[in-house]
From TrEMBL:
PROSITE patterns: PROK_CO2_ANHYDRASE_1 (PS00704), PROK_CO2_ANHYDRASE_2 (PS00705). SUPFAM superfamilies: beta-carbonic anhydrase, cab. Belongs to the beta-class carbonic anhydrase family. Its EC number is 4.2.1.1. This is Carbonic anhydrase. It catalyses: hydrogencarbonate + H(+) = CO2 + H2O. It holds the Pfam family Pro_CA. Reversible hydration of carbon dioxide. Residues 213-247 are annotated as: Disordered. Keywords: Lyase, Metal-binding, Zinc. It comes from Methylobacterium crusticola. PANTHER family: CARBONIC ANHYDRASE. Its cofactor is Zn(2+). It is an enzyme of class 4 (lyase).
Length: 247
């Protein structure tokens, strides 16, 4: 803990004085984060560090395996973070960020190792679909390292699907107000891959070509006779929620 305590002192005595105005502005204006990032709790995968974002710029939710439980199954931290980010903060971009060498994904491939960790084992059930995909859709003879990497990549795609089951996300997508991203951080090289929803595969992030997105904003309603109806306003619920955020 010594280095952490030293860090707190350094922040308070050296860093904060130089950033005082920014923090005062964040208190005055409230937070307006650019995106919600759901990332793994792995200490090597720090979203603010990877994106070089400062305070107030990202709304971050981290857990083992960058998992998004389907809306109907669990009422918990991830669900409420999503709902608050979309409804109260008006976030327009949501990122699910996986990474290489993920301990949660290793646990998924080695259930015996989780016998003494029943909560982790239960949590990882939300990634079983990714495990099945790798078992059934990938060649059987791929080496363990490639299998682990494929599992972590497929897990991001599975969690994006779970994300769409959340009512605030489903409505935001239908209104064309949300964009979904699937990222994969390579710890050893610092590279970032992004899921391309059109190609249905990950591609390297290249600044010139723009960032591939998992799902671009595209307003849609399924009812054919009402397809031309202009979208309604944000609705009473989200206006109330925004007021909550502004308090
Ligand atoms: Zn991880």
């Amino acid at each position: 803990m010594d280095s952490i305590i030293q860090g707190i002192s350094t922040f308070r005595d050296t860093v904060f004085p130089g950033q005082r105005r920014m923090y005062e502005r964040l208190v005055r204006d409230g937070q307006h984060p650019k995106a919600l990032i759901i990332a793994c709790a792995d200490s090597r995968v720090a979203p603010e560090h990877i994106t070089q974002a400062g305070p107030g710029e990202l709304f971050v939710c981290r857990n083992a395996g960058n998992i998004v439980p389907p809306s109907s199954q669990v009422t918990g931290g991830v669900s409420s973070a999503i709902e608050y980010a979309v409804m109260a903060l008006g976030v327009r971009d949501i990122v699910v960020c996986g990474h290489s060498d993920c301990g949660a994904m290793k646990g998924l491939t080695n259930p015996e190792a989780l016998e003494a960790m029943p909560n982790v084992a239960a949590w990882l059930r939300h990634s079983h679909a990714a495990d099945r995909i790798v078992h059934e859709a990938y060649p059987h003879d791929i080496d363990p390292a490639s299998r682990l990497r494929a599992l972590a990549l497929e897990n991001v795609v599975v969690q994006l699907a779970n994300l769409r089951t959340h009512p605030s996300v489903a409505a935001g997508l239908a209104r064309g107000r949300l964009r979904l991203h699937g990222w994969f951080f390579e710890i050893g090289t610092g590279d970032l891959l992004a899921y391309d929803g059109d190609q249905r595969r990950f591609a390297p992030f290249a600044e010139e070509g723009g960032m591939p997105v998992a799902e671009a904003p595209a307003p849609r309603v399924a009812a054919p006779d009402l397809a031309g109806t202009p979208p309604r306003g944000a609705g009473a619920a989200s206006e109330g929620a925004r007021a909550l955020a502004a308090e």
